[in-house]
Amino acid sequence: MANVLAGIIGALLGFSGALLGAWIKSRAEHGKWLRDQKLAGAAEMVSAGTSIFELRVGSPAWIDAFEPSELREWQAQLQRGRAVIHTLCTEETRAHANAFVKSCWSVKSDDAEEKAISALQAFTASLRKEIGVD
Known about the structure:
By secondary structure, this protein is an all-alpha fold. It has five helices and no strands. It starts with a helix and ends with a helix.
């Protein structure tokens, strides 16, 4: 009887260890997935935002050669990236993302480029801190 009880306890301990290991691995995989999603969303948003900014400050000849369908694609890309950031990131990172997007469209002032660069740097610094790069 004691041998059977010891066998059952050993089996339960082994099974609980396997469950704990699976849970830890699952958490690590989820963290990796979340990090990858944040990076992909940020890359999409920054790429589109930069293209929009460059269009808005471009020379008249460059703007005349521009296809309107490109702007629509950049807008869609910007919103997809922004949706990921707003869904998965902290309030601080979301606020910096909003400031960056706003700076991409607001290029009327003389210091627009400085503001856009500053907003981009603040966004990337916040994201890097959030995903544990810094």
